[in-house]
TrEMBL record:
Keywords: Membrane, Transmembrane, Transmembrane helix, Transport. It is found in: Membrane. The lineage of its organism: Bacteria, Pseudomonadati, Pseudomonadota, Gammaproteobacteria, Enterobacterales. This is MFS transporter. One of its GO terms (molecular function) is transmembrane transporter activity. One of its GO terms (cellular component) is membrane.
Length: 446
């Protein structure tokens, strides 16, 4: 066997072990994370809004205030992860948000709901960018699109499986003398605490600590990662302060904003839109049927994302792997409102969901192409922080515009506009030459 063939076999074996050992577990954490933060979307139209006397605008605000604490603590949390290690920090985050999420089962007023949503954002701050950074630190750049796409599958699958799960829990109305939506909060919160505790024993901070890699796999992986980091350092690697004031990083923030605005507008309001099918089309669905229908666009999105990211991994991630989905999403969002049957509406919404999820894992390969260490942690957290302002905006503006117009037409037009802006900015970023890996370092050295 030649040295090249031997090296290829070691590479394949190492990446396979990482994909089987780390990615599914971190994806499970992400599954629970997204389910807990969007549980309010299932609770709202299934008793919570009525029990607490909440309007659409108040529901949107309650959905969005989650991001206040989340945004403020995102960058400090990711820097803490870099300093203290992913294993302890991700476990701490998960256990914290599980405890806060559990308290929703006993919320009794709108101010209490607002308070708990802010506290949930504070508890969850840093998890998503921390998970992205953690997985990026384990594989060379050429494998990141594949690994991140496998991780990202957890997000659409959260709704595919989470919506029926939430519906099943809501149908346990009366258990423990509690309303169904309160039972749902109990059911989705306890796993976060349990898996958070398991995280301390399952994750390891670096390849050097991975006992499940053999000596050759460990040697190859460490060597490849060190060579990548050295190449980045050789182009005058920028400081954290430089990253935080760099135009390219802020452009990535704006691109991400459009995707996240679309993601959370769907996540928070799709169950409500489906509940409105009865008035719009005269079609009635029970709680479980609505849960299954909610999952359909996300199941299609999971399949599309897998194959789209596989193509990006095979060709190398291109600008059009991100810009084309943004364009498709921007066009399909408002188009869904003009369909004349529930099935047609859901199929068009499926295009929107597929577009968002096709773009996101490929987008996250961009920051680690030119950054490492603390600067990578800061950039990823900053992009996620500023992008997640869209999480607040999507909830609040969608609810407010719906109350003002008594329709979802204008709110969804806004969603489409932001996604089209993301497509345009991605093309401008590429055209300006700022998509080249060395660009940020060159700017820093000038």
């Amino acid at each position: 066997m030649s040295i090249q063939a031997s090296s290829s076999a070691v590479e394949t074996s190492a990446i396979r072990k990482i994909s089987l050992r780390l990615v599914p577990f971190v994806a499970l954490m992400f599954f629970i994370n997204f389910l807990d933060r969007t549980a309010i979307s299932f609770a709202g139209p299934n008793g919570m809004n009525q029990d607490l006397g909440i309007t659409a605008a108040q529901f949107g605000l309650a959905s969005g205030v989650f991001f206040i604490g989340y945004i403020l603590l995102e960058v400090p949390s990711n820097l803490a992860l870099h300093r203290f290690g992913a294993r302890k920090w991700l476990a701490r985050i998960m256990i914290s948000w599980g405890i806060v999420s559990l308290l929703f089962a006993w919320v009794s007023s709108l101010p209490g709901l607002y308070t708990l949503r802010v506290l949930l954002g504070i508890a969850e701050a840093g998890f998503f960018p921390g998970a992205i950074l953690y997985l990026s630190m384990w594989v060379p750049a050429r494998h990141r699109s594949k690994v991140l796409s496998l991780f990202y599958l957890a997000q659409p699958l959260t709704v595919v499986f989470g919506a029926p799960l939430a519906a099943a829990l809501i149908e346990q109305h009366g258990l423990f003398g509690m309303e169904g939506w309160r039972i749902m909060y109990l059911g989705v919160s306890i796993p976060a605490i349990l898996i958070g505790a398991v995280t301390l024993f399952w994750l390891v901070d670096s390849p050097r600590d991975a006992k499940w890699l053999d000596k050759e796999e460990k040697r190859w992986l460490i060597s490849e990662l060190e060579k990548e980091n050295k190449r980045k350092s050789d182009v005058n690697h920028p400081s954290v302060r430089t990253v935080m004031t760099n135009g390219r990083v802020w452009m990535l923030c704006l691109i991400y904003f459009g995707f996240i605005y679309g993601l959370y507008a769907l996540a928070f309001f799709l169950p409500t839109i489906i509940s409105g099918f009865q008035q719009q089309f005269g079609t009635t669905f029970n709680v479980m049927q609505k849960g299954v229908i909610t999952g359909v666009p996300y199941l299609i999105a999971a399949v599309v994302m897998f194959f789209w990211s596989k193509d990006a991994s095979r060709r190398g991630c291109k600008t059009w792997h991100i810009a084309l989905p943004a364009l498709a999403g921007g066009i399909s969002v408002p188009l869904a409102l003009y369909m004349n049957t529930p099935m047609a509406t859901i199929l068009v919404i499926s295009i929107t969901a597929s577009a968002i999820f096709a773009a996101l894992p490929n987008f996250w390969t961009l920051p680690t192409q030119f950054l490492t260490g603390a600067s990578a942690a800061a950039a990823i957290a900053l992009i996620n922080t500023l992008g997640n302002i869209a999480g607040f905006s999507a909830g609040y503006l969608t609810g407010m515009l719906h109350d003002a117009t008594n329709s979802y037409t204008l709110p969804m037009m806004v969603v489409g506009g932001f996604m089209l802006l993301s497509a345009l900015l991605m093309l401008l970023l590429n055209a300006s030459g700022k998509s080249k890996p060395a660009q940020l370092a060159q700017e820093h050295s000038q």
